[in-house]
């Protein structure tokens, strides 16, 4: 049977149909559901084997990207989301969805992640004091909205969305606050040791970007484009793999360039969900 995928829709979400199309072609049965229907009980979380937080500008990014949608999750759906994750069901947050997962404290871990924006674009430094967050997604180092195609390298074998992927992914980014930062080297070492760094920005030949712009489009530490939780079933990433699921979507397909589709990422998630 095809796994049912719950795609959350909030006011301002605008990448839900692209995510639905990618999931459909990956073998899932997508369902775009406004949050109001979940609050009213018209839709049940238990009917789904996958959860997707798509990109866009939920609530117009008021108070910061992803913050108000994260508040919704924590106020109205905390038990449902917690049960979903604890049952091992695959979850993916793309762009605004990644921001939401981080601000809701679901990524990279409950121990590392709470709402914070203590990153200074002007000084290009992340700072924290006692009691503040240890991880955040904040303003791009370029201090502008970045819309460009980039290359991703899947690196985590723990993450169910990237496990077994050996080909790079070519897809666009489109965000103003995609700069993933950690408070210190200790937090970064934890993510490395736990195999929670799922995707990295790389050069076209697969070499690490090492922070070089525009290959790393936002200044994220350690070229991190996506992270997963400790269990590996929750993935958050800033780029949009749902925008490259067909050959003709490659910006240079008329010149014969093809491959590195983002569809494979969704296929991995759907294969895992089908076993739930």
Summarize the structure.
The protein has helices at residues 16-26, 35-39, 67-76, 78-86, 96-103, 185-193, 263-273; strands spanning 4-9, 29-34, 50-53, 91-94, 119-120, 125-126, 135-138, 146-154, 169-175, 179-182, 197-202, 224-228, 234-237. By secondary structure, the chain is of the alpha/beta class. The chain has one domain (4-114, 126-273): Class I glutamine amidotransferase (GATase) domain (Rossmann fold, 3-Layer(aba) Sandwich), CATH 3.40.50.880.
Topology:
Blueprint: E1 4-9, H1 16-26, E2 29-34, H2 35-39, E3 50-53, H3 67-76, H4 78-86, E4 91-94, H5 96-103, E5 119-120, E6 125-126, E7 135-138, E8 146-154, E9 169-175, E10 179-182, H6 185-193, E11 197-202, E12 224-228, E13 234-237, H7 263-273
Helix pairs in contact: 1-7, 3-5
Which key phrases capture this entry?
nine-stranded mixed β-sheet, two-stranded antiparallel sheet, 7 helices, Rossmann fold, globular, alpha/beta
Largest sheet features: 9 strands, mixed
Low-confidence parts: 113-131
What is the architecture at the second tier of CATH?
A: 3-Layer(aba) Sandwich
Total of DSSP H or I helical runs spanning 4+ residues: 7
Instruction: Tally the structural domains.
Output: 1
CATH topology descriptor? Rossmann fold
- What is the top-level CATH class? Alpha Beta
CATH evolutionary superfamily: Class I glutamine amidotransferase (GATase) domain
Overall helicity? 10-25%
The chain-level mean pLDDT equals 92
**What is the end-to-end distance?**
11 Å
Q: How many strands appear in the DSSP assignment?
A: 13
Residue share in β-strands: 15-25%
Alpha-carbon Rg, integer: 17 Å
Q: Tell me, what's the shape?
A: globular
Strand order of the largest sheet: 2-1-3-4-13-12-11-8-9
What structural class do you assign from the helix and strand content? alpha/beta
Spell the H/E element sequence. Answer: EHEHEHHEHEEEEEEHEEEH
């Amino acid at each position: 049977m095809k796994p049912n995928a719950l795609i959350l829709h909030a006011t301002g979400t605008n990448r839900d149909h692209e995510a639905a199309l990618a999931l459909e072609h990956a073998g899932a049965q997508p369902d775009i559901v406004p949050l109001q229907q979940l609050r009213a009980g018209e839709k049940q979380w238990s009917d789904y084997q996958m959860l997707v937080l798509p990109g866009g500008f939920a609530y117009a990014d008021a108070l910061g990207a992803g913050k108000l949608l994260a508040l919704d999750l924590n106020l109205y759906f905390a038990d449902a989301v917690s049960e979903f994750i604890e049952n091992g069901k695959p979850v993916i947050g793309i762009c605004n969805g990644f921001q939401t997962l981080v601000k809701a404290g679901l990524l990279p871990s409950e121990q590392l992640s709470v709402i914070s924006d203590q990153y200074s674009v002007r000084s290009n430094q992340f700072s924290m004091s006692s009691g503040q967050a240890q991880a955040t997604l904040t303003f791009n180092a370029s201090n502008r909205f970045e819309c460009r195609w980039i290359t991703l390298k899947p690196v985590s074998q723990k993450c169910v969305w990237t496990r077994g992927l050996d080909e790079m992914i070519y897809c666009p980014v489109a965000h103003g606050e995609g700069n993933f930062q950690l408070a210190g080297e200790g937090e970064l070492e934890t993510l490395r040791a736990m195999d929670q760094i799922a995707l990295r920005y790389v050069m076209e030949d697969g070499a690490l970007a090492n922070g070089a712009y525009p290959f790393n489009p936002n200044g994220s530490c350690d070229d991190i484009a996506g992270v997963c939780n400790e269990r590996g079933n929750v993935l958050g990433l800033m780029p949009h793999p749902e925008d490259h699921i067909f050959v003709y979507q490659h910006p240079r397909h008329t010149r014969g360039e093809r491959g590195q589709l983002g569809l494979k990422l969704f296929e991995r998630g759907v294969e895992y969900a089908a076993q739930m």
